[in-house]
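so my prof wants the structure for this chain in the tokens format not the other one, which i didnt know existed until like an hour ago. anyway here's the sequence
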Amino acid sequence: MKTKEAELKELDDQLKVERTALDRWVQEALLVAIEALWVEQRNSVQGITSWADEASTTLVPLGMDPIQAGDPSSIADALLVLDSAAEWLWCLDTALGGRLEAEGRELCRAMAEHALSCFWSHNPSLSLAPVIEGPVADAEISALDGVPEAVEIVAARFQRAPPEAEEALQGDGDAAGPQ
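here's what i got, hopefully its the right format
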């Protein structure tokens, strides 16, 4: 009977050693998993911050305020950055729409000024009343037949100003004209 007890004792001791080894292995695996999750979280936070900085850098020249990213240290902090970015993006449509409308208006103004100054430079006594009144209804379609080629030639003279020239024009309050 002692042999059975000795065998059971030996099996119990071996089981305790194996259980301790297994517990140690589980703890090490948990630490590795926690470390991996922590690295992933840190990378996610840094990714959000990098995106917010890049978006701000890109769109601040268009008149948008920068996204307030700061230096978030947790996912919760990064979520606040994303909330700020969401609000910022809602304003983007209005800001860009206003900017495009203003630039379009300015381009139309520059094109009209160019066309009318060309007419007057060739014939200063030419009345601009027909331009203000608009086309004659019965003659508009036939008048448009010869216009597309001239439109292409004149439109080619107008290009979007390079960023440096655009900044200078905005600072002076002048409009971009023919290039």
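also thought this was worth mentioning. The CA atoms of residues 56 and 168 lie 22 Å apart.
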